Amino acid sequence: MKKLATLALAMVLAGVLGKAALAAPPADTLAEVKKKGVLVAGVKDSLPPFGYIDEKSRTIVGYDIDFINAIAKKLGVKAELKPVTSASRMPQLQEGNIDIIAATMTKNPERAKQIDFSHTYFFTGQKFITKKGAVRSLKDLEGKKIGTAKGSTSEQNVKKAIPSSTVLSFDDYPQAFLALQQGKVAAVTTDEAILAGILAKAPNKAQFEIPNLQISDEPYGLGMRKGDKNFVDFVNKTILEMEKSGEAKKIFEKWFGPTTQFHLQRNFKITADK
């Protein structure tokens, strides 16, 4: 009887482990996405103009979303958007809940050990939002509280650039900006393109500015699972084609052109990384 019970338990455990193995992320995302007919992307949903909820359509729109839609179209599948934060996006990818990250994600060596990146599809630099006239140099932020988002490269960069500062990490950048408005921090730091989006939407934006103080370069990549070569190659080929056809520039102009709230110069082209 004891032997039978042990055998039954072993069979149950084998079944559970078998199901766990089935739930693992696909080894070939490209084939799996084509098979299921849906590309699931992790995106921001409160960060204009990269990813935010449009008030009229109640759908997520933005620069990152246009790239995902273009990749999904090339694949001949639908795009499904899942909101992620800076801290949750890599775990969501690695656990197989999403197929790709398109969420203002800076490529760096530390992250590249854990996931694979596409070629750079957006390029910016890390700066600050401060009260107008309050900050002229990095010296003015020494010993001050500076807000940013958890799990972002901005956290590490500002600690290196201003070691005497106290970095307060929030769930997202709008929360950090609220802390600035309330006088709880002296500045908010992240990539200039994100800061421009936050400031453009602020009702009291005349009280704030982005001083010309850059502390790092920030190349954005689309994130995919480590070793997922077929999918990475497909995404890279697609965004290089988008650059060649002018579609990538058109998307930039749509969100950052001179007639937009977020006007920036396009000082990059999508090229194959060396």
TrEMBL record:
SMART domains from the entry? PBPb (SM00062), PBPe (SM00079)
Where do the Solute-binding protein family 3/N-terminal domain residues begin and end?
A: 38-259
Instruction: Alphabetically list the UniProt keywords.
Output: Signal, Transport
Q: What InterPro entries does the annotation carry?
A: Bact_solute-bind_prot3, Iontro_rcpt_C, SBP_3_CS, Solute-binding_3/MltF_N
- Is Transport one of the keywords UniProt gives this record? yes
Question: Which SUPFAM superfamilies does the UniProt record give?
Answer: Periplasmic binding protein-like II
Q: Which Gene3D superfamilies match?
A: Periplasmic binding protein-like II (3.40.190.10)
Domain named Ionotropic glutamate receptor C-terminal: residues = 38-258
Q: Which PANTHER family match?
A: ABC TRANSPORTER GLUTAMINE-BINDING PROTEIN GLNH, AMINO ACID ABC TRANSPORTER PERMEASE
**UniProt-recorded name of the protein:** ABC transporter substrate-binding protein
